[in-house]
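step: validate -> pass
step: tokenize input -> pass
step: predict -> running
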Amino acid sequence: MRILAIESSCDETAAAIIEDGRKMLSNVVDTQIATHALYGGVVPEIASRRHMEAVVRVTEQALADAEMDKHEVDAVAATCAPGLIGALLVGANFGKSLAFAMNKPFIPVHHIRGHIAATYLAYPELKPPFLTLIASGGHSEIVMVKDYTEFEILGGTRDDAAGEAFDKVARVLGVGYPGGPKIDALAQNGDPKRYKLPDSRIKDAPLDFSFSGLKTAVINLAHNAEQKGETLDREGLAASFCAAVVHTLVPRLEEAVHQTHARNVVCAGGVAANSFLRAALSDMAKRTHTRLFLPPLKLCGDNAAMIGAQAYYEYLAGNLGHTLQNAYPTADIGRNICDKA
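step: predict -> pass
step: emit ->
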């Protein structure tokens, strides 16, 4: 089964052709980073307009790269939640219209489910059940993937997500947007023990995260150095911040491994590209005798291939959309977002 997938939840307009949920025939991403970097972050109205300009182009390119005509696809999928609502509506309505014009099934896909499914493209042998750490711009969660469309949240953030914290710290350090890769690069030459940063723990919720205190601590460090006329060790602070994020995420994931007796562990989302986190997860896998599945860097960020991979399993589960299918800015990963007549 060949699925044409569309992704437009934030600032990437993407299209891909995926076969049977595991084989990537094409994957095209049109990024808006240069535009939003001018403002230090994503501007929703601009993002929506850019999606409208790019969605037809990336779809045609994805079909061309797969050497297919649009009528040869078996279904059309699009991200319908969660994300920036204006951005989501562009991809969802385009995908839905294309599907119904060609009399093909339309498959609405949950964006975070898609991040998990990116791992299926890199590891064809991976099958549920497995434990997943979601670490992205808007989400930080520990999830048990019981089946391809059945998910249980074991822990999550009480405030900021890890990726959001990276973007805010990047502004403080003056490295620009997007924060994740820029902080990672800056931290390579820094001492991760240079600054002592907090590790917030949630009483009676050992698998939950909190990043607001960490973010505030970095802001205060930078502000105090400026007020005192001191030179801030930017590389050291970036490295210390990365280490603090890792120390927030990995011990809780390791606790989840012990609680669930999971043998397979996945890390998904944009923050999964962070070199400090990937190294710490590899060490954890050795300690816990688990097998670690990390998607390649090109599949960590937002893309349509991951949406097409998850769409295949949504199709098999009967989670199909209708002409009234809507998009949603928020949605629990355990919720099936298909709207049926």
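step: describe -> The CA atoms of residues 209 and 249 lie 7 Å apart.
step: cleanup -> pass
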